[in-house]
Design a protein that fits this description.
The chain is an alpha+beta fold. It has 10 helices and 13 strands. The strands form 3 sheets. Strands 1-2-3-11-5-9 form a 6-stranded antiparallel β-sheet. The radius of gyration is 24 Å and the shape is globular. The protein starts with 13 loop residues before the first helix and ends in an 11-residue tail after the last helix.
């Protein structure tokens, strides 16, 4: 077996591990103090948090236009690694797949993220029949720090005022339209209405780095994933982050077989977000069909969303007893 750098981790060197931990903790504390001080990033985000999304992005634009603060932060993280290659800089990774990121700051509905697409990840999940374009209600402003020779594709989907207000249905959803790719340009700024616009990257000869400020207030419009090749809707999920977190918790409880937690599933089937209601019901059916059946019956007739009612009725029909065989 090829040796890994982790084979050399100083597990038995307690003083060294304590020094690494202390250095990372001190750096995290320094960044926190800088961010929360007047004029700091978190302080600015909190001031912008009460503004409409477009106004919030305009207020925070200086943090995108001059990324010197980000360079200083990354230099400090690299210095930590230079002092000890096994140190863990206090940077929080988020996302996954071909375009992951580092969460730099977050407060309320606003997040600042460094998006990274390593060169070796290009083409891994962003092209071909399996490529998906993700649309989440909100606004985003992105600055391209390093283009890496990549091309960008813009995806657009129409959303009506009624859909944005809570009347979205998969049956009536518009198709996604993808524009021809164009060269990504270092330094350019992208402004996106993320309920209606999404991007994907193709090709390239180097890493792609983008600094993003995203504002995603609670919305009755769900997060939607579209198949880029066909333009068809592929998946719908809850857009409220609290609903998403509860959905993940319910999935974990279901995988653990926690039937005693059935009341938590039942409560979520009565929530505000229609996608979250159906996700909770689907998990409850998998966990405890007997407990789910009466709730399905109610959902099939009384849920406010027509597609949830249809899905519940179709699932309820699976519980119907098979007809007795005819007498010979």
């Amino acid at each position: 077996m090829t040796p890994s750098r982790h084979d050399h981790f100083p597990a038995a060197d307690l003083p060294r591990r304590q020094r690494m931990r202390a250095a990372a903790t001190a750096l995290a504390g320094r960044w926190q103090a800088e961010d929360e001080a007047p004029g700091g990033l978190l302080a600015a985000i909190r001031i912008a948090g009460d503004l409409p999304p477009d106004a919030a992005l305009a207020t925070l634009a200086p943090w995108l236009d001059d990324a010197g603060w980000l360079g200083a932060r990354l230099d400090a993280a690299l210095a930590l690694l230079a002092a000890d290659p096994f140190a863990r800089p206090p940077l929080r990774p988020v996302g996954g797949g071909a375009l992951a990121g580092i969460l730099l700051a977050e407060a309320g509905n606003i997040r600042v993220t460094l998006l990274v697409r390593p060169f070796e990840a290009q083409g891994a999940s962003e092209t071909g029949d399996a490529a998906l374009a993700l649309f989440a209600p909100g606004r985003a402003r992105l600055r391209v720090l390093h283009a890496g020779g990549a091309a960008i594709e813009m995806h657009d989907v129409a959303v009506s005022a009624a859909e944005e207000a809570g009347g979205f249905t998969a049956r009536a959803a518009s198709s996604c339209i993808t524009a021809p790719p164009r060269r990504l340009v270092a330094g350019e700024v992208l402004m996106l209405d993320t309920a209606r616009q999404a991007i994907s990257l193709t090709g390239g000869d180097g890493d792609v780095l983008m600094l993003e400020i995203a504002v995603q207030p609670p919305s009755p419009l769900p997060v939607r994933a579209y198949d880029v090749a066909s333009g068809g809707l592929a998946h719908v999920s809850a857009s409220r982050r609290d609903s998403s977190f509860r959905g993940m918790a319910l999935a974990l409880l279901r995988s653990l077989g926690r039937r005693d937690a059935a009341p938590l599933f039942a409560a979520e089937t009565r929530g505000e977000d229609f996608a979250a209601r159906w996700t909770a019901m689907r998990e409850l059916v998998a966990l405890d069909p007997a407990a789910a059946q009466p709730l399905l019956a109610v959902m099939a007739t009384a849920d406010p969303h027509p597609e949830v009612r249809r899905a519940a009725a179709a699932t309820l029909a699976l519980f119907a007893p098979e007809p007795a065989p005819c007498p010979a």
